Amino acid sequence: MSEDVQGIVKQSAFLADRHRLDTVTAKPTANYMVAGICAIIALLVYGLLVTVQVMDFQAYQFQ
């Protein structure tokens, strides 16, 4: 096959207008309040676990 054949389009980095997101005006509908609350709860649980581990280590340290 020759590269000069009619109808064959070479692939390139060009994006067609239909694939661009310039015309999208809708705002995201995600609500991040629940994710924020879960993150805060996870941080508190993590802090509690670290505190318990440090206290447990200190109890064995002076025996």
Main β-sheet: number of strands, strand sense, barrel status? none
SSE string, helices as H and strands as E: H
Structural class: mainly alpha
- The rough form would be described as elongated
Beta fraction of the residues?
under 5%
Indicate the percent of residues in helices.
40-55%
Give the integer mean of the pLDDT values: 76
Number of strands: 0
Over all CA atoms, what is the radius of gyration?
29 Å
Poorly predicted residue ranges? none
Tally of separate helices: 1
Distance between the termini: 83 Å
What does this structure look like?
The protein is mainly alpha-helical and 63 residues long. The chain has one helix and no strands. The protein is elongated.
Give me the secondary-structure topology:
Blueprint: H1 33-61
Provide keyphrases for this structure.
single chain, 63 residues, mainly alpha, 1 helix, 0% strand, elongated
Give a nutshell description of this structure.
This protein is mainly alpha-helical.
